[in-house]
Amino acid sequence: NIEQDLRGKKVLISAGGTREAIDPVRYIANRSSGKMGYALAKRALARGAEVTLVTGPTKLTPPAGVTTYEIQTAAELEEAMLTHYAKQDIVIMAAAVADYRVKTVAEQKIKKNAETWQLELVKNPDILKRLGELKREQVLVGFAAETTDLLAHATKKLQQKNADLLVANDVSRKDIGFGADDNEAWLLTRKNAPKATGKLKKTQLADLILSSALQLRGES
Ligand code: C5P
């Protein structure tokens, strides 16, 4: 029964983009809409899983029945993921995490003055990589949004982050990826050759990702 094939399974999903504060009124963000992560949460719930969603700010409403935690920064996202990680069967990092944050967040609004302004940034933790290091029984799923050399970059990420499944998509295309309802991806695993999904609704791609992860869970 495909409808309930995730019954008894715990699935942890991150979604949306993070926000890194500059001062009390400004932040650094990215183009993530959260649609892919929310589609995963919705489909995992429909298939019977116990779903935890950790989400950056989005315009979307979390599906009723999903335990949801709202975060803003990469540091908050990391903390939430680590808190819930140990008990999960499947963990999916669909969030677009800021790679850098502002080194010193100003307590007061920064006034405009000079003609140029340099912000100093420091690297954020790579959460997926950290989860890969701590991995035990969990099936770990990551994403790779690329504009060039999609498969080469994705293959490297699968290895370097110790993920079991990597979903790679070309974000230079307007019709798929950021903000769109459709997506077309490559699914990469450690054992098999990359598989192209063809163009799908994000909910259909979510089902494919969940099915692949469930299969890997069975093999582990
Ligand atoms: O290295 P890159 O950012 O392209 O890797 C993308 C994958 O890594 C996504 O699954 C994303 O959620 C995750 N990631 C992360 N922490 C970061 C950057 C990316 O978990 N600081």
From TrEMBL:
<keyword id="KW-0460">Magnesium</keyword>
<feature type="binding site">
    <location>
        <position position="143"/>
    </location>
    <ligand>
        <name>CTP</name>
    </ligand>
</feature>
<feature type="binding site">
    <location>
        <position position="99"/>
    </location>
    <ligand>
        <name>CTP</name>
    </ligand>
</feature>
<protein>
    <recommendedName>
        <fullName>Coenzyme A biosynthesis bifunctional protein CoaBC</fullName>
        <ecNumber>4.1.1.36</ecNumber>
        <ecNumber>6.3.2.5</ecNumber>
    </recommendedName>
</protein>
<comment type="pathway">
    <text>Cofactor biosynthesis; coenzyme A biosynthesis; CoA from (R)-pantothenate: step 2/5.</text>
</comment>
<comment type="function">
    <text>Catalyzes two steps in the biosynthesis of coenzyme A. In the first step cysteine is conjugated to 4'-phosphopantothenate to form 4-phosphopantothenoylcysteine, in the latter compound is decarboxylated to form 4'-phosphopantotheine.</text>
</comment>
<keyword id="KW-0472">Membrane</keyword>
<feature type="binding site">
    <location>
        <begin position="125"/>
        <end position="128"/>
    </location>
    <ligand>
        <name>CTP</name>
    </ligand>
</feature>
<feature type="region of interest" description="Phosphopantothenate--cysteine ligase">
    <location>
        <begin position="11"/>
        <end position="220"/>
    </location>
</feature>
<comment type="pathway">
    <text>Cofactor biosynthesis; coenzyme A biosynthesis; CoA from (R)-pantothenate: step 3/5.</text>
</comment>
<keyword id="KW-0456">Lyase</keyword>
<keyword id="KW-0285">Flavoprotein</keyword>
<feature type="binding site">
    <location>
        <position position="157"/>
    </location>
    <ligand>
        <name>CTP</name>
    </ligand>
</feature>
<feature type="binding site">
    <location>
        <position position="161"/>
    </location>
    <ligand>
        <name>CTP</name>
    </ligand>
</feature>
<feature type="binding site">
    <location>
        <position position="109"/>
    </location>
    <ligand>
        <name>CTP</name>
    </ligand>
</feature>
<comment type="similarity">
    <text>In the N-terminal section; belongs to the HFCD (homo-oligomeric flavin containing Cys decarboxylase) superfamily.</text>
</comment>
<keyword id="KW-0812">Transmembrane</keyword>
<keyword id="KW-0436">Ligase</keyword>
<keyword id="KW-0479">Metal-binding</keyword>
<dbReference type="GO" id="GO:0016874">
    <property type="term" value="F:ligase activity"/>
</dbReference>
<keyword id="KW-0511">Multifunctional enzyme</keyword>
<comment type="function">
    <text>Catalyzes two sequential steps in the biosynthesis of coenzyme A. In the first step cysteine is conjugated to 4'-phosphopantothenate to form 4-phosphopantothenoylcysteine. In the second step the latter compound is decarboxylated to form 4'-phosphopantotheine.</text>
</comment>
<feature type="domain" description="DNA/pantothenate metabolism flavoprotein C-terminal">
    <location>
        <begin position="6"/>
        <end position="213"/>
    </location>
</feature>
<keyword id="KW-0288">FMN</keyword>
<keyword id="KW-1133">Transmembrane helix</keyword>
<keyword id="KW-0210">Decarboxylase</keyword>
<comment type="similarity">
    <text>In the C-terminal section; belongs to the PPC synthetase family.</text>
</comment>
